[in-house]
Write a structure and sequence with these properties.
By secondary structure, this protein is of the alpha/beta class. It has one domain: pyruvate-formate lyase- activating enzyme (Alpha-Beta Horseshoe). It contains 10 helices and 5 strands, in the order αβαβαβααβαβαααα. It has a 5-stranded parallel sheet with strand order 1-2-3-4-5. The longest helix is centred in the last third of the chain and has 26 residues. It starts with a helix and ends in a 7-residue tail after the last helix. The relative contact order is 0.09.
């Protein structure tokens, strides 16, 4: 199919929608080697788990045209991940793979989930800081969402407050959280995006502008202090007003 599409449209961009593209290592290798052996002019993106990747496989995929790599981190807390049936990935391996992708020019996009039932304001803030520390190119934050028909929906049914299925979008609180109000969860979601993207280092690195590390650290620390003051003011303003529906 890839060869046929390249024949019809020339140089092409593909998105492999398999969420575990490299879990079957031999299949991923066969796809990459097939692209290379036929000299197909393609770029592509895929999603996988970071513990299903190593530098050797990344080198091969990059030669075949890997442009963007998406993966789930979800939470920085291994205990939280284990409680929801996820297999934690060592932080050292996450940093190693993300850093290697950065050196190869591969865009990385990390996924995070805010609002696990054991989450607190402090644990979510720690996950936000962890997302910055990992240094992926992009980050996508969403609120825990018990989609209808899933085991999570059945497990959380007594807590679910929303009946409009269109609001089960990952950005709208749909349940009563045991440790925080729905409004506070929304504030933390907004803080995640502002803290990750409104950083001088993120903008300059994304644009490929080289800046001395000491200068970047000073600019980021200044921005972080401003954001923290604004967060405190916003939380204090909103706290007396919020009630869960």
């Amino acid at each position: 199919e890839i060869q046929e599409l390249c024949g019809r449209f020339g140089e092409s961009y593909f998105i492999f929608r398999d969420p575990l593209f490299t879990e079957e290592r031999e299949r991923a290798i066969a796809i990459a080697e097939g692209i290379l052996s036929k000299n197909l002019k393609v770029r592509f993106e895929c999603e996988t788990r970071l513990d299903d990747l190593d530098k050797e496989l990344l080198d091969l995929l990059h030669r075949a045209g890997l442009n963007t790599l998406a993966f789930g981190v979800e939470s920085m807390d291994p205990a939280t991940l284990k409680r929801v049936g996820r297999r934690p990935i060592p932080a050292e391996h996450q940093r190693d793979i993300i850093g290697y992708c950065r050196d190869k020019g591969i865009t990385t996009e990390a996924f995070y989930v805010l609002g696990f039932l054991t989450d607190t304001v402090e644990s979510i803030r720690a996950t936000i800081e962890y997302s910055i520390d990992l240094g992926s190119t992009l980050a996508l934050f969403k609120i825990l969402t018990p989609f209808p028909g899933t085991p999570l929906f059945k497990h959380m049914k007594p807590l679910i407050t929303e009946t409009d299925w269109e609001k089960f979008d990952g950005y709208t609180p749909t349940f009563t959280h045991p440790n925080m109000t729905q409004q506070r969860l929304l504030l933390l979601l907004g803080a995640a995006y502002s803290h990750f993207y409104i950083r001088p280092s993120w903008g300059l690195n994304y644009l490929g502008i080289k800046t001395p590390n000491e200068t970047l650290r000073w600019l980021d620390n200044y921005t972080k202090r401003r954001q923290q003051r604004e967060d405190v003011a916003l939380f204090e303003t909103q706290a007396p007003k919020v009630t869960d529906q």
